[in-house]
Write a structure and sequence with these properties.
CATH topology of the largest domain: GMP Synthetase, Chain A, domain 3
CATH architecture of the largest domain: 2-Layer Sandwich
Strand order of the largest sheet: 1-2-3
Helix content: 25-40%
Protein name: Osmotically inducible protein OsmC
Largest sheet: 3 strands, antiparallel
Structural class: alpha+beta
Number of domains: 2
Strand content: 25-35%
Number of strands: 6
Order of helices and strands: EEEHEEHHE
Pfam families: OsmC
Number of helices: 3
InterPro entries: KH_dom-like_a/b, OsmC/Ohr_fam, OsmC/Ohrsf
Distance between the termini: 44 Å
Low-confidence stretches: none
């Protein structure tokens, strides 16, 4: 069984520095507080980034194996928080945008479906507490 451990340390005000199993560190903060010029991330927004990263890594790997690479690929994730505390994402929309002059829609659909239903563990975690909706957009360049 794989275990991941991170250490998160309070640095000042509403800021924390956290590490990653890869050894890199970054700052998290409460975006509603004045944090001056500090560059950092809000914890809940990081969850959306993790979802996009997890699924995106699956998709690019699968597309490469299918010989269906694209010129550009981006994922836009929108999360809707509950109104009451503790606030959590109750609804999440994941949009997959692919651009190329020679798109292969069937392979793209298959890669995204495999990520969403089989490979992306973060997607599965989100489904445990949120309604997750996905959509694919193909852009010819």
């Amino acid at each position: 069984m794989v275990k991941n451990t991170v250490t998160t340390v309070w640095t000042q005000k509403s800021q924390f520095e956290t590490d990653n199993p890869s050894g890199y560190k970054f700052t998290m903060f409460d975006k509603s507080q004045d944090n001056g010029d500090v560059v950092g991330f809000a914890p809940k927004a990081l969850m959306l980034s993790s979802l996009a990263g997890c699924s995106g890594l699956d998709v690019v790997s699968l597309l490469a194996k299918m010989r269906a690479e694209v010129a550009d690929f981006r994922i836009e994730v929108t999360g809707e928080l509950t109104d009451e505390h503790p606030k959590y994402y109750k609804k999440v929309r994941v949009e997959y945008h692919f651009s190329d002059s020679n798109l292969q829609p069937e392979k793209i659909q298959k890669a995204v479906n495999l990520s969403v239903t089989t490979y992306c563990g973060v997607m599965e975690m989100f489904r445990r507490f949120a309604e997750v909706e996905t959509e694919i957009f193909l852009h010819t360049i």
